[in-house]
Design goal:
binds NADP nicotinamide-adenine-dinucleotide phosphate, elongated, 7-stranded mixed beta sheet, alpha/beta, 5-stranded parallel beta sheet, 22% helix
Length: 311
C-alpha cells in the first residue's frame, strides 16, 4: 500500500513526487510514456524561474525525475487501464492486471495535442503532418511548412521551425494571435515567417507525403492551394481525462475541477497540472499544483484540518 500514487510524470506529477517523497510518504509515480510529458518536447524553456540560460525541456524533466528518485520516489512505466477511487483505499489497475494500491491518488494526467479533423490529417500523420515541432523539425531542412494555430505553441514553434525550414506560413483562424506578446514580436520580426490571417486549413493533400494544403479565408470563403512539404498542427490541447469522466467532476471542456488545495470531488483524490481547470498552463503553475497536491495528500492521510475553500 502506497501513501501516494501519482498518475502522470509531467512537471506536475514530478513535483508532486518530489514533495510527497521528501515528506517521507511512500510514493509511486506512474507514466506510460517518458518523464516530462509535453515539456520534454520543448526545445528551450526560458520562463521557468531561475533558468536564465537555455535549458531544454528534456533536461529540466530529467533533473526533476532525478530529484524525485533521490527522495525515494518509485518510478513505474505502465499503462493504467482503470481506477478504483470510491472506497477509502484506492487502486490503479494496469493493463497487464497489476493492482497498485494507495491511500491517495494525484491525477497529473496532462493533455494531448488537439486534432484539426480535416481530410488528409490522420492519413498523413508521420508523412508530413506533425504535432510536435521539436520532435520533427529536423526532417524539414530547406522545406516549406505550414503551422496551424495562434497560441504560444504555434507562434513559438514557428520561430524554432525556421532554423530548419526555408519558410513557415502560420495559418490562423482570427486576425490576431492569442500568444504572449514577446513571442508575437519575435515572429513578426522573423523574415522567414508569413501569416495567413482569418484562414483555416480545409484539407491536406499529397501522394506519398503531404505536398499541399487547401486554405479558406473564413470571411471571403476564397480558397487557395498552397504547395508545401509539411503541416504542424499546433492548435492547443485536450485534457487527458476520458478515463475519469463521470466520476471525477470535469468542466464542459473536460478539465478536472478542484478547489485551490487541488482536491477533487472524491476524498483522497487530487489533481494537478494541465488537466486541471485553471487560467494559466505553464511549467511553473504545474509545479505549484504538484507541490500543493502532495501537501494536501499528506494532510489528508494524517487527518489534519485546514481552511476549507471552494473552487
Ligand atoms: P492554446 O493557447 O489553446 O492556443 C490554441 C490556438 O489554436 C489558438 O490560437 C486557437 O485559436 C487555435 N485553434 C484551436 N482550435 C483550432 C481549430 N480547430 N482550428 C484552427 N485553429 C484552432 O494552445 P497552445 O498554444 O498549445 O498552448 C497550450 C498551453 O501551453 C497554453 O496555456 C500556453 O500558454 C502554454 N504554452 C506556453 C508556452 C510558453 O510560455 N513559452 C509555450 C507553449 C505553450 P483562437 O485563438 O481563435 O482560439
Amino acid at each position: 500500500m502506497y501513501d501516494v500514487a501519482i498518475l502522470g510524470a509531467g512537471p506536475a506529477g514530478l513535483t508532486a513526487a518530489i514533495y510527497a517523497s521528501r515528506a517521507r510518504l511512500k510514493t509511486i509515480l506512474i507514466e506510460r510514456n517518458y518523464p516530462g510529458g509535453q515539456v520534454a518536447m520543448c526545445d528551450k524553456v526560458e520562463n521557468y524561474p531561475g533558468h536564465i540560460e537555455n535549458t531544454s525541456g528534456f533536461d529540466l524533466s530529467m533533473s526533476m525525475k532525478e530529484q524525485a528518485e533521490r527522495f525515494g520516489t518509485e518510478m513505474k512505466s505502465t499503462e493504467i487501464a482503470s481506477l478504483e477511487l470510491d472506497s477509502k483505499e484506492k487502486a490503479l489497475v494496469a493493463s497487464d492486471g497489476e493492482r497498485i494500491e494507495a491511500k491517495t491518488i494525484i491525477l497529473s494526467l496532462g493533455a494531448n495535442p488537439r486534432k484539426l479533423g480535416v481530410p488528409g490529417e490522420i492519413e498523413f500523420i508521420g508523412r508530413g503532418v506533425s504535432y510536435c515541432a521539436v520532435c520533427d523539425a529536423a526532417f524539414y531542412k530547406d522545406k516549406k511548412l505550414v503551422v496551424v494555430g495562434g497560441g504560444d505553441t504555434a507562434v513559438e514553434d514557428s520561430n524554432f521551425l525556421t532554423r530548419y525550414a526555408s519558410s513557415v506560413t502560420i495559418v490562423h483562424r482570427r486576425d490576431k494571435f492569442r500568444a504572449q506578446r514577446i513571442l508575437q514580436e519575435r515572429t513578426i520580426q522573423n523574415p522567414s515567417i508569413t501569416v495567413q490571417w482569418n484562414s483555416v486549413v480545409k484539407s491536406i493533400g499529397g501522394k506519398d507525403s503531404v505536398d499541399h494544403v487547401i486554405l479558406e479565408n473564413v470571411q471571403t470563403k476564397q480558397q487557395i492551394n498552397l504547395p508545401i512539404d509539411g503541416v504542424f498542427v499546433l492548435v492547443g490541447l485536450e485534457p487527458n481525462t476520458k478515463m475519469i469522466a463521470g466520476r471525477v467532476h470535469l468542466d464542459p471542456a473536460g478539465y478536472i475541477i478542484t478547489d485551490e488545495n487541488m482536491r477533487t470531488n472524491i476524498p483522497g483524490v487530487f489533481a494537478a497540472g494541465d488537466a486541471r481547470q485553471k487560467l494559466l498552463r505553464q511549467i511553473v503553475t504545474a509545479c505549484a499544483d504538484g507541490a500543493i497536491a502532495a501537501t494536501a495528500a499528506e494532510k489528508y492521510i494524517d487527518g489534519d484540518e485546514w481552511p476549507t475553500t471552494k473552487s
